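The passage that follows is intended for readers who have already worked through the single-chain material. We present the inputs for a multi-component assembly, then the predicted structure in tokenized form, and finally a short commentary. You are encouraged to pause after the input and sketch how you expect the pieces to fit together before reading on.
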Amino acid sequence: MPPRQATAQPPVAGSPEAVADRLHSAAIHLLRRLRREDDASGISAPRLSALSVLVFGGPRTIGELAKVEQVRVPTMSRLVAALEAGGLLRRVPDASDRRVVRVEATAAGHALLHAGQRRRVAALAADVARLTARERQAIVKVVPLLEKLAGR
Amino acid sequence: MPPRQATAQPPVAGSPEAVADRLHSAAIHLLRRLRREDDASGISAPRLSALSVLVFGGPRTIGELAKVEQVRVPTMSRLVAALEAGGLLRRVPDASDRRVVRVEATAAGHALLHAGQRRRVAALAADVARLTARERQAIVKVVPLLEKLAGR
DNA sequence: TTGAGATATTTAGCTACGCTAACTAACATA
DNA sequence: TATGTTAGTTAGCGTAGCTAAATATCTCAA
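Having made your guess, compare it with the prediction:
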């Protein structure tokens, strides 16, 4: 068999394994590139992502937020604490069950997300803008599939 | 304007900003889901990714590896140290320039990658296998675009 | 009604990854 | 030979993920 390139592409080009493999690699590289833009917005990606759920999906308990964001509760608890310290969300005690803490985005949270998210993906958006309409459309079609693969 | 859902979808559905935004979110969720599988393989994603470059692309200097992986040199230096400690790669001194350290995957590194990478993306691959052929093909077409957006 | 278990969150402590700054070693060159 | 440049390591910081254990509250059955 040929020396190296032969193994660079896993077995069958369109096989589920190959697709999964390349998708994984692409996702890693895409996010690494975006991390720097995130830095500029002054808020980390995990925090922004959690805040985004609150802004677009409304108030939630910390446990629910953890599930949506696919992290453990203590991790989300800390993210929430950081966002609260920054004035981006507030805790709202649940009247009927005092164990639960519902969190909701503050006005500052909404503002930061809308302004920040734009700035944050601006670099990516600029590159997306350079693609052809057909290419962009191809991506739009695939995104829901990716979310499905991500398990919601 | 309508209350919440109106702002849930950024402006124009096919606009570069909207595409970038949704893509970013999808990538985050996809990788979070995969991290757990990574854990099972006993080697972290960043290490596996660096090792993968060596296995599929051949020996490289640490600086080159850092550039490919889009991290700073000290970060890669530490990843390399960890991989070396695990016997997955070895340092090969450069005869002509004793400053540079070339690293290459050991047999164990090759073995782990081939076995591990399969296992690692197995869960994702299983879900990919559940997609229709058309859906799979759509993803295959988009992956190169994602890599391009990631800046190589 | 009280006591045992279940549930929601926090706290504590660990590992790992990313960064910058500062250091060492080796090379290049004036 | 001295000066500057380049490759890599070390040190130290912040953040994110995890598990285990603590705290507070709720539920429910004896």
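Commentary: The first strand of chain A starts at residue 60 and ends at 61. Chain A touches chain B through 64 residues (CB under 8 Å). How closely did your sketch match?
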